[in-house]
Amino acid sequence: MIYDFLVIGGGLAGIGAAAKLSSLGSILILEMEEALGYHASGRSAAMFEENYGPAAVCALSRASAEHHRSNGCLSPRGFMLVGGPQNAEIFAQDMQALALEPITAEEARAKVPILHPEHVTMAGWHEEAQDLDADLLLQGFAKSARANGAEIVTRKTASAISRNGSSWEVTVGDQVFEARQLVNAAGAWADQIAALAGVAPIGLQPKRRSMARLPAPGGHDVTSWPMIMGAGETWYAKPDAGKLLVSPAEADPVEPHDAYADDMVLAEGLARYEENVTEPVTRVESNWAGLRSFAPDGCLVLGPDPNCPEFIWSAGQGGYGVQTSPAAAQLVADLVAGRSPELDQADVAALTPARLR
Ligand SMILES: Cc1cc2nc3c(=O)[nH]c(=O)nc-3n(C[C@H](O)[C@H](O)[C@H](O)COP(=O)(O)OP(=O)(O)OC[C@H]3O[C@@H](n4cnc5c(N)ncnc54)[C@H](O)[C@@H]3O)c2cc1C
Fold it and tell me: Ligand 1 mean position to 24 CA, how many Å?
């Protein structure tokens, strides 16, 4: 059988694209791990903050909001930026970039009582930031794709790709799958997939980001605390099922791999968090890391490659791939189907692979 589409990658990019493309033709999705969402898609902070990222990313996030809402993926959280005399300049830049409303340090402490009175003297607020249920989102995409006849197979690593006439041949072990169009949604591995297919890479850089899960600080009930970010994105913290997640917010360039937290990076990040709070870190219950993969200009790369239109990119999701996934998938499908996208032309131009050629 020759599929119309073969998607490489079973994260939010691949399964999201499959949900949309499955109404246009037959489709096979290959995921090398045992579970969908095993890499970046299952390791995120799961936030929806529509003012986070470059303009075209914000446009994708705004265009995704209705999908998240109507599928029950959002719940109230709120976002707070904190700063003090030591980082006043970068705090002011973040306030503007994230379009935050200034609140007093007392108002900030009323929301998060452990904020340090001397080190946190300034705060910004965005009430509309939400928690995003990434697993519900992924399962919803998979359900839509399967309902349209998509075949999703796990533990299948695409190891060779070649062109045979007007179709692609993708080798997985001793099997070969054929498809007319190839969708590259391989996350941190997307440039490696391009190289296998003989398509020029886009200069993707995977960057590690770690997370530590701490017991609720000082025994506080953290359930209603917002996400808190240190000015300059030097750390952030977020409640999670009665515990507190703290990230050093590092963006360390690495090769694609099954990421894990670096002890020193974690310790330094926890120290930056501790400077801003009155409760010490007593214990780290667990930790993990994931890869956020960026194109050179930091925007997603969505749509057919200009030099090889049968090779479709859904890559470079960076730190926004959860919140942008519905609109990113829609844009990919619109471009493949030759439909006029709902996004502004300028945003489409900022996301096209052609900008990197
Ligand atoms: C700590 C952290 C916090 C984050 N916080 C947020 C947040 O709050 N909000 C937000 O929107 N985003 C956030 N992100 C970013 C978000 O997680 C990613 O942008 C998104 O998950 C990327 O999805 P993806 O499908 O492109 O990649 P992935 O989920 O990594 O999926 C790619 C898949 O391709 C598969 N694959 C690769 N090569 C092959 C092959 N040869 N054959 C078969 N399969 C292959 C991999 O196994 C993988 O499952 C965060 C990321 C991290 C690490």
Answer: 24
